[in-house]
Backbone:
């Protein structure tokens, strides 16, 4: 089996020598479009024999075996000739593929993948080396393609630590915990309206795959996912991720989920389960807010996504959502209105308070997991504070959160007991509050939080990273306030 970890290192080393590649974000994008075409070629070989009469959407000259595969006879394209083909034939052809509503999804994804993709490399010899490394992956080997799917998650973790790419990654421990406790069942459909690289969808698929027994189950599982991703780069990652995890026709749209009037959604647009980590810290302009009822309009992106979830969760459905502390203790009119709607229309049964460093090194914002279902109004809500595991002062890139760290919460989930805070008299690590208590408290959901703080000496690098993260959060809050003031004054920004 190919050493896939070494493979990624080799690719990075090659691309570091290319003048057109600048940083990890461009390296990832370069790897992804090439890897996608390699995986797509393997899938096409399967589809030709699946009895559906499959026909490729790709012209002959743009198929992997005709331009990328090196048979060792010295005839493979390289140097200026390869660059000319990729830049002037491959990319224009794939971007210009004719796609209609009738085009099968597994064909249409090629055009959407390349609509905004970029080819950064300027050295055709180095590009040939990159293509050869990826061509060397044996995707005919069942165990290897599944290993690649698993290691793909590691690729994302490793490479997304640079720049803004990190905003698309939710730790696997978190996605697995949420997917398990949302209780997936074969035949249900799940949605993630800001799916990033598809981490939640992978965790969902793996939960269902443990239940599969028949060929019909396999088909139902592959059709159970739905995602939307606004940005091209993570969209490309998500499509490739789904192909690697056995979804031949991934129903993932490249769009902004917030730019549709929520009042127009019907029961046909609703989902059984919703799993997501909405983008937070950003703000939306008035034109995006206009798609929401006036009393629920907010410039905070995460708040709008929660409203969207309330409109697209079916009756009887369940949702698990990551939200920042700001939503829990926010007392402005819009946040209170959203919380009122949440408690009135859904059963917010559990809130898990997470340690501040779960998303390190991408952000230091403290987050929470909200679990609710559309079975009636909230009567009571359990809060549980997940403390740092023994031996940890904080999570980091080299010491990330593991699924096993949720073990105390898993045990508590089954028992639902009140747990006094061991260090602070009168405080709680876990407790239950009635809806009336929450209403009397002004809809402040900042309960069973972290009342104590330890002084910690950080490295210079970590200090700078946390400073930048905190500054980004403050800048986002300032921008949001300025946006609201401008809207009230009728000033264009």
Residues:
């Amino acid at each position: 089996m190919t050493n896939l970890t070494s493979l990624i290192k080799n690719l990075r080393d090659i691309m570091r020598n290319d003048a057109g590649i600048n940083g990890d974000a461009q390296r990832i994008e370069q790897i992804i479009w090439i890897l996608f075409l390699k995986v797509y070629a393997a899938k096409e070989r399967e589809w030709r024999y699946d009895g559906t009469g499959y026909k490729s959407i790709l012209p002959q000259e743009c198929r992997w075996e005709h331009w990328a595969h090196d048979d060792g006879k010295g005839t493979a394209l390289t140097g200026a000739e390869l660059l000319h083909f990729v830049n002037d034939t491959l990319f224009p052809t794939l971007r210009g593929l004719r796609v209609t509503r009738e085009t099968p999804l597994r064909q249409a994804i090629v055009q959407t993948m390349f609509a905004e993709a970029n080819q950064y490399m300027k050295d055709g010899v180095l590009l040939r080396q990159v293509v050869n490394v990826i061509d060397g992956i044996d995707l005919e080997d069942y165990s290897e393609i599944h290993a690649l799917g698993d290691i793909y998650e590691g690729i994302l973790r490793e490479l997304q630590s640079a720049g803004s790419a990190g905003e698309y990654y939710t730790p696997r421990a978190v996605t697995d915990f949420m997917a398990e406790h949302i209780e997936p069942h074969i035949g249900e459909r799940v949605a993630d309206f800001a799916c990033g690289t598809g981490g939640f969808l992978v965790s969902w698929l793996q939960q269902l795959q443990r239940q599969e027994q028949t060929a019909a189950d396999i088909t139902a599982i592959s059709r159970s996912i739905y995602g939307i991703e606004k940005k091209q780069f993570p969209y490309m990652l998500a499509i490739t991720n789904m192909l690697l995890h056995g979804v031949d026709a991934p129903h993932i749209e490249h769009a902004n989920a917030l730019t549709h009037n929520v009042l127009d959604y019907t029961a046909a647009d609703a989902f059984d389960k919703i799993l997501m980590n909405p983008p937070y810290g950003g703000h939306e302009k008035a034109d995006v807010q206009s798609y929401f009822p006036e009393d629920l309009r907010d410039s905070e992106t995460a708040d709008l996504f929660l409203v969207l979830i309330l409109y697209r969760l079916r009756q009887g459905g369940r949702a698990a959502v990551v939200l920042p502390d700001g939503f829990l203790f926010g007392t402005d009119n819009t946040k209170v209105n959203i919380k009122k709607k949440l408690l009135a229309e859904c059963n917010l049964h559990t809130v898990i308070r997470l340690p501040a460093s779960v998303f390190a090194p991408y952000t230091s914002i403290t987050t929470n997991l909200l679990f609710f279902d559309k079975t009636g109004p909230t009567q009571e809500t359990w809060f549980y504070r997940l403390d740092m595991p023994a031996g940890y002062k904080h999570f980091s890139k080299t010491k990330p959160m593991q699924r096993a760290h949720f073990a105390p919460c898993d045990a508590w989930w089954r028992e639902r007991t009140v747990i006094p805070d061991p260090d602070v008299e009168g405080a709680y690590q876990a407790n239950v509050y009635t809806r009336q208590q929450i209403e009397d408290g002004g809809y402040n959901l900042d309960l069973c939080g972290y009342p104590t703080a330890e002084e910690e000496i950080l490295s210079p690098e970590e200090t700078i990273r946390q400073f930048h993260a905190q500054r980004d959060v403050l800048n986002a809050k300032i921008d949001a306030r300025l946006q609201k003031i401008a809207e009230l004054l009728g000033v264009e920004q």
Summary: Strands lie at 190-192, 225-229, 252-254, 271-276, 313-324, 347-353, 367-373, 380-385, 419-420, 428-434. Residues 161-167 have pLDDT under 50 and may be disordered.
